Amino acid sequence: MTIPQPIGWTPGGAIRILDQTLLPDTERYVDLETVDAVAEAIRTLRVRGAPLIGIAAAMGVTLAGRKGRPSVEQVCAASALLGATRPTAVNLRWALGRMERRAEAAARRGEDLAAALRQEADAIWDEDRAMCARIGVAGAELIGGDALVLTHCNAGALATGGIGTALAPVYTLHEAGRRVAVVADETRPLLQGSRLTAWELTRAGVPVTLITDNMAASRLRRGDITCVIVGADRIAANGDVANKIGTYGLALAARAHGVPFYVAAPTSTVDPATPDGARIPIEERPAAEVAGWRGRPAAPAEVRVWNPAFDVTPAALVTAIITDRGVFAPGDVAGST
Ligand code: MRU
To answer: Measured from the CA of 152, which atom of ligand 1 is nearest?
Structure first.
């Protein structure tokens, strides 16, 4: 199975990313040498997906004071800059919090700060890879065999340090020789479903059918979808789930047709400090993303646009949450952290 690796180190200690804004037509790797460049890459979705932006930000912190000897102050300034790039995915704050705590501990103990930061960033990446694998096993057991999985956005290898979250059970079943296929929502406005999910599944040899978002309800009514699996950017203490805009509508349609609606996420996405979905900050993105495509207008220039990047699916619509620590009822997931 060919799984893309969206991030890595260069031999010189810079960060190499697969520029996801150029997929599927161009596969270009870009080297990021500064904290500012990493922040820009996260803001513009060159790197994206909740776990991956946490990993990218952690790696980005290692670039603070890279040319000399980094200080804890530089680490905290880098963390503040990176933490302000995208508000919804809690993995970003979670990873940066770990980097700050590691820097402070290293300074207290008189350790080499640069080496400690690199170690912590690698640990965050390694742990994410392992969490994805465990989500894959838990999800595959839950599904139990051949399946047609409907998904939204991209919660695959391109969004994580491993085999993804929502796609992890799919890859695990595929590897085990089960007949598993995916129906991928296109995911307007930035087309993560068609550009990214369809791309990585095709490369991995997993059969995928692309639909536009407004076809999902009709597809669910046909009765051939085994389950819906989506990722998450933040799961509140009560089990409400923030994920890519359109997830809520998909959950409503799944409920209406009696199709299980699963959320797959590592425990780094669970935020016990946020009591419910109403308190999750929802990122609003530029109007141009809705009113045009790659610089070409798709609407009159003067039209008003509303462009929330995420929505909140109430816990009541979620059948179960598949995590690296097992499968939970939404109301119990905060206990997993
Ligand atoms: O705006 P994006 O592309 O970063 O949004 C990504 C999603 O909404 C994913 O579903 C979520 O981050 C989970 S990725 C494992």
So the answer is: 10
